[in-house]
Amino acid sequence: MALVAQSATFIHQYISSFLHSKPLIHPAETHPDVILYAIASRDASTAAQAAKQYNITKSYGSYQELLDDPAVDIVYVSTPNGQHYEWTSKALQAGKHVLCEKPFTSNADEAKGLVSLAKEKGLTLEEAVGLCRHLN
Fold first, then answer.
1. What is the C-alpha separation between 100 and 131, in angstroms, rounded?
2. What are the pLDDT digits (tens) for 27-53?
3. Is 90 noted as a catalytic residue in this protein?
4. pTM of the full structure
């Protein structure tokens, strides 16, 4: 399975530099069945920088270029929140399995539409929800 990071934005979600992004990539890069194959950003140089830093084979300056790559099996959508529905829908239409960062969509109708599309295409669609255990 080839896993791709659809957006270099995910690197910036919790901090504005690349200094602490390793915890976001490490689980994927250490899994024996996952290949970190490609990364895309709205800016080609940002994608290229992240690809070089994390030994990712391909970098793209647009999300659509990534979705057009037949070697891509699954994408992690971590674009800005308002773009989750758009790019998750496009990824499913392109035949890609999708792990979408939260919030999954802006409303229930969008979520239902994506779930229906994934079922229709026989694809896996998941929301990236982290579970925390709070001990008192």
1. 15
2. 777 888 888 899 999 999 999 998 998
3. no
4. 0.78
